[in-house]
Amino acid sequence: MARAVPAVFGSVFHPEMPVLAYENQAWQAVRWQSAQDLSLAPGAHALHYGSECFEGLKAFRQADGKIVLFRPQANIARMQQSARLLYLPVPETDAFLQALTGLVARAAESVPDAPASLYLRPTLIGTDPVIGKAGAPSESALLYILASPVGDYFQTGSPMKLLVETEHMRCAPHMGRIKCGGNYASALPWVLKAKAEHGAHQVLFCPNGDVQETGASNFALIHGNEIITKPLTDEFLHGVTRDSVLTIARDLGYTVSERPFSVAELKAAVEDGAEAILTGTAAVISPVTSFVIDGQEITVRSQERGTAIRKAVTDIQYGLAEDRHGWLVPVVG
Ligand SMILES: *Cc1c(COP(=O)(O)O)cnc(C)c1O
């Protein structure tokens, strides 16, 4: 059966969603409700003081019809970390995982075939209806999960031009590892400026020359047999895809170097034939095709190795290669 996938990423949602409420110092049992709208006090803490974080992960329909989630425990752990850092109630692991698997099971009919997938968007918001709490955490919260069938946004040869930004940061350094909406708002001026002034697709944030990440993806260089990416710090988002890609690269015989590197090193490596990749749940790997550094455009000559590593990851997701790292959680079939 053909399952339609909307052209615009995340524009169509499964009609129901699980909602977990934290009230009176306790997480309540899951409620299933319409994903059409959400009733919220206009004074809700998240709407005024940014007590919000989210996750993004996918469910895949495999060749034999089974439906699996990819590394949901990693996303649950990351949202728990985001919640701690934002002083939001921390979701409970088991109830969270059950809400995810329950949603995928209910939405099973709309999980598309490869190379599309079902994207899941857990969202945690502070709901205290008190605008006097500017300097205090929210004591109540909602965790809800949206599900959206999404297509394959990867196309060999599609352009990915990055503006290298050395002056501005994506977000405040202590917020970097929190997956929160505020960080996206914080990056928007530089992203829009890069589009308007350079026709760039993304901004690579490199404050004081330290190569970090783009607005929504991690970054790595593939230079010969070495994959180079920044070691985990508070300043940037610890991507699940980053970890999956590094793990698979090690399996494929690459040397993985998690170390700081500069724009000067990036430029020299690309001129020496290195590849550059973005990693994230939506596309797994997007090969970079060019950089704008100090107003000068530098072309990346090859996308081959990044494309091959990407295939090794998506083969596991779609059940075409063995899941040697225990990343798949079966939901249906
Ligand atoms: C979500 C996100 C990523 C990628 O994380 P994945 O877990 O790989 O999807 C990278 N950077 C930022 C800023 C993000 O929000």
Automatic annotation (TrEMBL):
Alphabetical UniProt keywords: Aminotransferase, Pyridoxal phosphate, Transferase
Domain of life of the source: Bacteria
Gene3D superfamilies hit by this protein: 3.30.470.10, D-amino Acid Aminotransferase, subunit A, domain 2
EC number annotated for this UniProt entry: 2.6.1.42
Keyword Transferase part of the UniProt annotation: yes
Pathway the protein acts in: Amino-acid biosynthesis; L-valine biosynthesis; L-valine from pyruvate: step 4/4; Amino-acid biosynthesis; L-isoleucine biosynthesis; L-isoleucine from 2-oxobutanoate: step 4/4; Amino-acid biosynthesis; L-leucine biosynthesis; L-leucine from 3-methyl-2-oxobutanoate: step 4/4
Residues with the N6-(pyridoxal phosphate)lysine modification: 179
Cofactor(s) listed in the protein's UniProt record: pyridoxal 5'-phosphate
GO molecular function: L-isoleucine-2-oxoglutarate transaminase activity; L-leucine-2-oxoglutarate transaminase activity; L-valine-2-oxoglutarate transaminase activity
Catalytic activity: L-isoleucine + 2-oxoglutarate = (S)-3-methyl-2-oxopentanoate + L-glutamate; L-leucine + 2-oxoglutarate = 4-methyl-2-oxopentanoate + L-glutamate; L-valine + 2-oxoglutarate = 3-methyl-2-oxobutanoate + L-glutamate
One of the protein's GO biological processes: L-leucine biosynthetic process
Leader peptide range in chain numbering: none
Function (record text): Acts on leucine, isoleucine and valine.
Similarity-based family: Belongs to the class-IV pyridoxal-phosphate-dependent aminotransferase family.
Protein name: branched-chain-amino-acid transaminase
Gene: ilvE
